[in-house]
Design brief:
The protein is an all-beta fold.
């Protein structure tokens, strides 16, 4: 049986680009190196476009569209619920 386990590490620099008036929503972009560790190791560059949607109590939603260059996957869509401290 094959082991398809992988670990992804990103180091991104994020730029908040466009705040949407009266909503608290921000559009952002980020870029940085990405390493994917599977039975082999893959290295590349990720460029990201995303939306930061605020909630109550310092929480927020993030939706990202990540484009990969190099040996990493070409395209990923991610959604997250972020908890503030």
């Amino acid at each position: 049986m094959a082991d398809n386990t992988s670990v992804v590490a990103n180091i991104d620099l994020r730029w908040y680009l466009i705040p949407l008036p009266e909503t608290g929503i921000h559009l952002y972009g980020s870029a940085g190196p990405t390493i994917v560790v599977t039975p082999g190791t893959e290295v590349g560059l990720s460029l990201t476009a995303g939306i930061d949607i605020p909630m109550k109590s310092h929480r927020r939603y993030n939706v990202e569209f990540r484009f990969g260059f190099g040996d990493i996957p070409d395209f990923k869509i991610a959604a997250a619920l972020m908890f503030g401290m």
